[in-house]
């Protein structure tokens, strides 16, 4: 049985996304490998930035041999090369083993093995992580470029209206809240972050107040 701790890290890019979406997948992976997740670290921060308080908190308390468990490598990084080097330097410096569900070569790292096997798998895992991190960064840059091109074209054609409100989601959240549902129940039903639910409810209350005035 693995005596080291397993720390699960969940991240989504925006407050409108549910960072806990992959919680069940990580839990099932841990269970199938006979280990328990010691703590969950969850945040809504961009993967293209190192300014991630929960990830830094995880690395601060982690000790050599502990596992950083993520759903996908891009949950850990969409960083540029310089920042990725800084992050991997912190991870290696602490002796933390990264296990990602989308990186099969990392799965055996969830349990301690003999020294030779562990070192060989760490070397292979490090190379694969670098490759996937580079791919995630390119995907991030490509999507940003396509988005900018789309906005530029829409503006040129006079069709750009900015980010549109999802009225259907707003109505559903408000109906569930009016029915007495808790934030947690609404979150599970709509798969959106609590901050989004709170903003929708506060915006509705403000509109009601403004109409009364």
TrEMBL record:
Pfam families: Resolvase. PROSITE patterns: RECOMBINASES_1 (PS00397), RECOMBINASES_2 (PS00398), RECOMBINASES_3 (PS51736). Residues 5-158 form the Resolvase/invertase-type recombinase catalytic domain. InterPro entries: Recombinase_CS, Resolv_N, Resolvase-like_N_sf, SSR_resolvase, WH-like_DNA-bd_sf. Keywords: DNA integration, DNA recombination, DNA-binding. The active site is at 13 (o-(5'-phospho-dna)-serine intermediate). Signal peptide: none annotated. It comes from the Bacteria. PANTHER family: DNA-INVERTASE FROM LAMBDOID PROPHAGE, RESOLVASE-RELATED. This is Transposon Tn552 DNA-invertase bin3. It comes from Pseudocitrobacter corydidari. The lineage of its organism: Bacteria, Pseudomonadati, Pseudomonadota, Gammaproteobacteria, Enterobacterales. The gene is bin3.
